[in-house]
Amino acid sequence: MSSIDKSKPIGVVGAGAMGRGIIQVFAQSGFDVLVHDANSSAIESALATIEKLLNRSVSKERITDDERDATLKRITPVGNVSEFKSVQLFVEAASEKPEIKKTIFKAVDKVLAGDAIRATNTSSISITELAAVTGNPSLFIGMHFFNPVPVMKLVEIVMGLETSDATYDKVHALAEAVGKTPLRANDHPGFVSNRILMPMINEAILCMQDGVARPEAIDGIMQLGMAHPMGPLRLADLIGLDVCYDILNVLHRDLGEDKYRPAPLLRKMVLAGRLGNKTKQGFYTYE
Ligand code: NAD
């Protein structure tokens, strides 16, 4: 097993819903974190969210004032990925679009050290396909965190066709070092998590579309009958309806089966800009 070196920073691109959680868990675990986002307001909002969550932990006496301050000090926004030269692990958490991710990896690959690990938090895009734009695919891996990152224990580690065992061991150790439970999957559309979850969410949306039950009843039935902590429609709102739509499109295209076709109601919600929690309007309304 790899030993963990906290003297070398972690680089994160994308400070949205997932990136900010990834930044927080690494910084809270003692790693310096360099952060870049194409949209500077995303960084400001990420830092404000992290500070708010840390303040909440202070008020619940889970961490001290000093620990909060030290965590915030470890996070450094950077204007350009050229500043990622010294990172041991680079995690990409930008939008779920292959072209965006490939452009980022092509740029970052030129800057990173020869042994730095290149990881993506993609929910569904092929790890092997993204690895192919980098110079050394054996160092490329899927590091799939779950939302909200500071709370959820799982990291689904996804092996591309050429990912080496040494890369897996290092990422496994890093995931454990930030208090997560890593579980291994191979590169296949949706990996394990979304191949099982997204058809369930899609079916819940089809139930709503067909008038089988109201959203509260659909979610209540899955919570009380199946012991799920959260119903599928509320979970879809939390993940982001655009993200769900993108993932279903990948499953539908790459696995080629009708059962993965996104529900027309999901498409309409995305076109209307009702994306769930992040726009305060999805299957439910949020204050
Ligand atoms: P998001 O839309 O909240 O954030 C994406 C961020 O990427 C934005 O801040 C955007 O400005 C930034 N970005 C876009 N293009 C960029 C570029 N070229 N360079 C730098 N930054 C850029 O999305 P999210 O929900 O945080 O998802 C991020 C990734 O995590 C996606 O691949 C998604 O599939 C995956 N993921 C999401 C969830 C979830 O529940 N939302 C769960 C697991 C994995």
Oligomer: single chain
* Ligand set: nicotinamide-adenine-dinucleotide
CATH class of the largest domain: Alpha Beta
Helix fraction by DSSP (H/I, runs of at least 4) = 40-55%
How many domain units? 2
Please tell me about this protein's structure.
- The structure is a single chain.
- The chain folds into two domains: 10-186, Rossmann fold (3-Layer(aba) Sandwich); 195-279, N-(1-d-carboxylethyl)-l-norvaline Dehydrogenase, domain 2 (Orthogonal Bundle), CATH 1.10.1040.
- Helices cover 46% and strands 13% of the residues.
- It is built from eleven helices and eight strands.
- Strand 4 (89-92), helix 4 (98-109) and strand 5 form a beta-alpha-beta unit.
- The protein starts with 9 loop residues before the first strand and ends in a 16-residue tail after the last helix.
- The model has no long low-confidence stretch (mean pLDDT 96).
- The structure holds nicotinamide-adenine-dinucleotide.
- Nicotinamide-adenine-dinucleotide is lined by residues 13-19, 37-39, 42, 93-96, 100, 104, 121-123, 144, 146-147, 239-240, 243.
Summarize the structure.
With 287 residues, the protein is α/β, with parallel strands linked by helices.
Topology:
Layout: E1 10-13, H1 17-28, E2 33-36, H2 40-59, H3 65-73, E3 75-77, E4 89-92, H4 98-109, E5 117-120, H5 127-131, E6 140-145, E7 154-159, H6 165-177, E8 181-186, H7 193-209, H8 215-226, H9 232-239, H10 241-255, H11 264-271
The structure holds nicotinamide-adenine-dinucleotide.
